[in-house]
Specification:
This protein is mainly alpha-helical. It contains three helices and no strands. The protein has a domain of 52 residues.
């Protein structure tokens, strides 16, 4: 990653890990791995565009998942 470019900021939305099936230690490791990918630039190197106008089968699955999450935001119950 070019050091002249500003690194993206990573912000975890409330509820983004609600469906995570693992221990707190595993979640902490996942978050650390994501933050390391942002720091190293790997996250942008491996990113791909999701085409909402002409989606592939994989894109359709991603879009459907995101829409399901968005529609359930108001139903989230924090304990």
């Amino acid at each position: 990653m070019n050091s002249d470019k500003e690194k993206p900021e990573i912000v975890f939305a409330p509820g983004c890990f609600d469906n995570f099936d693992g221990t707190q230690e595993e979640l902490d490791e996942l978050i650390a791995a994501i933050q390391q990918m942002v720091e190293s630039g790997e996250i942008m190197e491996n990113a791909r565009v999701v085409d909402f106008d002409n989606p592939s089968d994989d894109d359709r699955e991603i879009i459907e998942h995101l829409m399901n999450i968005e529609s359930n935001v108001d139903e989230r119950k924090l304990q």
